[in-house]
Amino acid sequence: MAFFENEVEVLIDEGRLQQRIRSLGAELTKDYRDKDLTLVSVLKGSVFFATDLARAIDLPLTLEYLGASSYHGRTETTGEVRITTDVSMPLAGKDLLVVEDIIDTGLTMKFLLENLQARHPASVKVCALLEKPSRARTAVTIDYRGFVIDDVFVVGYGLDFAERYRNLPFVGILLRGGRDSGRA
Ligand code: IMP
Ligand code: MG
């Protein structure tokens, strides 16, 4: 893939991503051995991560998708979130693992956790591929994390800028002058 040349600089390459996901999968396989694991993948950003993670977990899990969209202020989330696509099954009694691409301010995850808790699952934990701790505005416990990154805007492996770049197989930093940048 080369369309992104001059637009994106690699931050975490495909090899490092996949290696980390295999190790998270091994950890989850151990931790959820006697549980009824349901991965709740948050649309759209976490889909690439969730499908690779699911294949790295050696257990009979189920997979659900939850669409969430935050109302944005000028440049960042206002913390007001709305469910755009709901899961397809009741979650009562299930051991939920919410799979997210990135925890930035944490406001989206806080809302989702409150929403999911109200459905009486047996347990709820969080697995995030990336965490930007410098931007945290609310305390969210991340039980499983892939990588901690600095306050940079990243794209690829599910993460987008104006809906583009999700299909890159790595996580990269969007450079100034990137495709359509300035139009978001
Ligand atoms: P939060 O509510 O501020 O934690 O926002 C989380 C959401 O913002 C994520 O699910 C992403 O959709 C988006 N987001 C935050 N940082 C980035 C980034 O660096 N690149 C792409 N999307 C991001
Ligand atoms: Mg997202």
Short description:
With 184 residues, the protein is α/β, with parallel strands linked by helices. It is built from three helices and nine strands; from the N terminus they run βαβαβββαββββ. The protein has helices at residues 14-31, 47-55, 107-117, and strands at 8-12, 37-43, 62-72, 77-85, 95-103, 123-131, 144-148, 154-155, 171-174.
Pick out the low-confidence regions: none
Number of helices: 3
Overall geometric form: globular
What is the percentage of strand-forming residues?
Answer: 25-35%
Proportion in helices:
10-25%
**Each distinct ligand:** inosinic acid, magnesium ion
Question: What's the total number of strands?
Answer: 9
Q: Roughly how many Å is the radius of gyration?
A: 16 Å
The structure class reads: alpha/beta
**What does the largest sheet look like?**
6 strands, mixed
N-end to C-end Cα span? 23 Å
Q: Output the strand order for the largest sheet.
A: 4-3-2-5-6-7
Average pLDDT, all residues: 92
User: How do the SSEs run, as a string of H and E?
Assistant: EHEHEEEHEEEE
